[in-house]
Write a structure and sequence with these properties.
The protein is mostly beta strands and 120 residues long. The protein has strands at residues 3-7, 10-12, 18-25, 34-39, 46-51, 58-60, 68-73, 78-83, 92-102, 105-110, 114-118.
Length: 120
């Protein structure tokens, strides 16, 4: 069964850093693009960062550019989100996501989420 398990969230002060991890299993990790989303209370879930499988190219939400870095380690079946210069508005539950091709279309798999709280 496909599983995504996030970890690394916690409480951090503004300006601090955290590294989130997403451990993947149940599919060929190296051939799939991976992404991170987040959802704050009362807000829509939004795409934070994505990384492709082949080229490793990345995309980021404008709000996190220059502060967050997505990366992957195919040998460990893990995708990371390095979060620097954290702001209170980064507070949210962060979710790992993979989009898979299934007949006749696609399906998305989500992790359980990990809470990041940025507060003094």
């Amino acid at each position: 069964q496909v599983q995504l398990v996030e970890s690394g969230g916690g409480l951090v002060k503004p300006g601090g850093s955290l590294r989130l991890s997403c451990a993947a299993s149940g599919f060929t990790f190296s051939t799939h693009a991976m992404s991170w989303y987040r959802q704050a209370p009362g807000k829509e879930r939004e795409l934070v960062a994505a990384i492709t499988s082949a080229s490793g190219s990345t995309n980021y939400a404008e709000s996190v550019k220059g502060r967050f870095t997505i990366s992957r380690d195919n040998a460990k079946n893990t995708v990371y989100l390095q979060m620097n210069s954290l702001k209170p508005e980064d507070t949210a539950v962060y979710y790992c996501n993979v989009k898979r091709r299934t007949y006749p279309g696609y399906s998305e798999v989500w992790g359980q989420g990990t809470l990041v709280t940025v507060s003094s």
